[in-house]
Amino acid sequence: MSFYVTLPSDSSMHFFPENKISHFKTQLPSPVCLNGEWEVGLSEIIYPHSWLNVNETNNYFLYKAGDGNISSTVKRTIDVGCYETMLDIISAVQLAFTQKS
User: Fold this and answer.
1) Phi then psi dihedrals of residue 62, to 5 deg
2) Can you give the pTM of this predicted structure?
3) Which of 47, 75, 88, 101 has a beta carbon 3.0–4.6 Å from 83's, enabling a disulfide?
4) Average pLDDT in the 48-73 region?
5) How would residue 101 be classed by pLDDT, with cut points 50, 70 and 90?
6) Which residue, 90, 87, 65, 63, is CA-closest to 78?
7) pLDDT score of 70
C-alpha cells in the first residue's frame, strides 16, 4: 500500500502560530497509524525564490571615461530585481551602458 501526505507550511496556523515556511508543524485531519516497516520518500517540494540577486547595494558599475587628458568617473545602474539567468544580467548591463546618463 502507498499513499501521499501533503504538508503545507501554513495549513495549521491556528494550532501552531509560530510556524514559518522553513520550520513548521502540520495538524493532520486524522491519525496515520503505521505498522511494520515503512519507507518514506519526498515526492515534491516547493521552494519559493523571493529574494533579489541584484539589490540597491550591488546594482551599479563605475568606470573611467575620457580622452586621456581629462577623465571622469561614470556610474551606470541596472534595475534591482531577481534575474533568472546570467544572460538576463548581461542584457541589463549592456542596456545600462548604451543609455545616456
Assistant:
1) -115, 140
2) 0.50
3) 88
4) 87
5) low
6) 90
7) 81
